[in-house]
């Protein structure tokens, strides 16, 4: 087939800026491609890993096979425990909301469980966050509001939520 063309190290900062712009333009596949190019050259580039996770989670609404697992693998390569927890929370939050958007009967309890998992991860991240960074709290609140504003998003019976990442 086609052999991919490599980036130069000098192109990495500009390429990562482009990946962010592509995400903002709802062109997540292009952002994923750029992040993969950067990671070929710098496998531990933290900005590329974080952007890759966000771009992959943008694609969860399409239920593209392997997206969740690839995002989880990228999260595992993040150096900061705070970032691993925070981006894991985002992954679970976006998965739950994508699942809910599908509108399948009975989607409320799995959506609830996914959001509760995200909230647990955001709480753990908030405990590790720098004093001026409340991103995890903002995401926790967004999950709580989603549950509050969607009557069908409730536990299956009595709340038996237990975090998956104990």
Quick synopsis:
This protein is mainly α and 166 residues long.
Give the topology, please.
Blueprint: H1 12-24, H2 28-41, H3 46-58, H4 67-76, H5 81-102, H6 108-128, H7 135-149
Helix pairs in contact: 1-2, 1-3, 2-3, 3-4, 3-5, 4-5, 5-6, 5-7, 6-7
- Report the sheet-strand fraction: under 5%
Tell me the span between the first and last alpha carbons.
44 Å
Shape: globular
The percentage helix is 55-70%
Order of helices and strands: HHHHHHH
Q: List how many beta strands DSSP finds.
A: 0
Q: Treating each run of at least 4 consecutive H or I residues as one helix, how many helices? A: 7
* Low-pLDDT ranges: none
Radius of gyration, rounded?
Answer: 17 Å
Indicate the multimeric state.
single chain
pLDDT average, as an integer?
93
Structural class: mainly alpha
Largest sheet: none
